[in-house]
Design brief:
The protein is mostly helical and 146 residues long. It contains 5 helices and 4 strands; from the N terminus they run ββααββααα. The protein has a domain of 70 residues. Strands 1-2 form a two-stranded antiparallel ribbon. Strands 3-4 form a two-stranded antiparallel sheet. α1 packs antiparallel against α2. It is elongated and about 110 Å long.
Length: 146
């Protein structure tokens, strides 16, 4: 074990970092947004009764988005999955208008031309190779023409 490199494998990648006590950054940002919405509602509805009627459901919805989890996943992931499921059709319908002949056309394999063979270099002749080796070994002082 002495010569092997040791690598630290990160664990708990799905745990969010806590910034204020048990509150994560995502939860803190959600609550800041909810407080901003509540302040705007307070300025629009100056009546305390209307503020409670409209503001409490918004606050409850914000708390659900911030703290509620389903199967260990935050609630907004569940909402996103529901929206994506509603947008995609989940029912597959067989188009029976195609005949057997039409289907056989789609099943025919497409013939592809084979790729050209790779270019092959001619090997260096043995006599020429030994001359080049001699030139390299002597540092260029050997001249094969002499």
């Amino acid at each position: 074990m002495a010569g092997r490199n040791q690598f630290v494998v990160p664990q708990f990648l799905d745990v969010e970092a806590k910034i204020i006590g048990p509150v994560t950054a995502r939860q803190f940002i959600i609550f800041l947004a909810i407080l901003l919405i509540e302040f705007i509602l307070y300025r629009v509805f100056l009546s305390l009764a209307l503020q409670l009627i409209v503001g409490l459901p918004v606050l409850a919805l914000g708390a659900i988005f911030a703290f509620f989890k389903v199967n260990g996943q935050p609630f907004h992931y569940i909402i996103l999955n529901v929206v994506q499921t509603m947008r995609k059709p989940s029912l597959r319908v067989w188009d029976k208008t195609l005949s057997d002949a039409d289907i056989r056309i789609f099943l025919k394999p497409v013939e592809v031309a084979p790729p050209p063979p790779p270019a092959v270099k001619s090997p260096i002749e043995k006599g020429r190779l030994s001359e080049l080796t001699l030139v390299v070994n002597t540092g260029g002082s050997y001249n094969p023409e002499n």
